[in-house]
Amino acid sequence: MTNAEMIWKYQDAENEFERLRKELENTPERQKLRKLRRVLQEQSDKIKGFEAGLKEKEEQIEADAAKLEALLKDYDLEQDDLNIMLEDEECTAEELTESRKAMEALLERINALKKSITADQEWTRSTEAAIKDTYSKGAKIKRDYEAAKTVVETEKMERQPIIDKAERELKMLGKQLSPEVLKRYETIKKKHPNPVASLNDNRCTGCGMSVSMTAVRKFTAGSELVECENCGRLICRREG
Ligand SMILES: [Zn+2]
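Above: query sequence and zinc ion SMILES. Below: predicted holo structure tokens.
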């Protein structure tokens, strides 16, 4: 087998190996598994967010409830004071007005606080419901995920031996190439997925550019490897 035939064979084997590997990586079931994993992660993040908000809100409600209790006590005291003043004949109308105003102000704060606590409690309830809902949806997704995982494992078990065989074949062909050629191939591969090209109408099939007459002559002789002056690919005659 000529060098040209060998290197073409090597490239074909490598393409086949990569194709098989990618095929396994991207089966519909694998894509499904990746998607489900993302959804599960999103749900877990969502629940964490809900729970953090819930904790904060519960602390807020507790603090507001303590504040409310203190305000109610103040209101009662103010009420007692007013009752005493009403009994007291020396108490002036101004003092009574002052006391009533203080009570009104307290009542306003009490009502505002009650409203805020009620709203927070409603938020807490709806958030708890959202958490529960997310959990129950998550349970179904988790089941789908486990099912997809089983299929993916089976796919791998079935296809891995074929991929391994393709890899062994590639390595075997690599050993038949001279180390310098293999090194050149690998270097070009970093820039071009297919490092080997042919000539068509004196143009490199890799980049489509014309090559020099020297390159054409070498190519026609078929004895040595020619490099495209433009893209650097190895130009080899493809036989058979
Ligand atoms: Zn080229």
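DSSP finds five helices and five strands in the chain.
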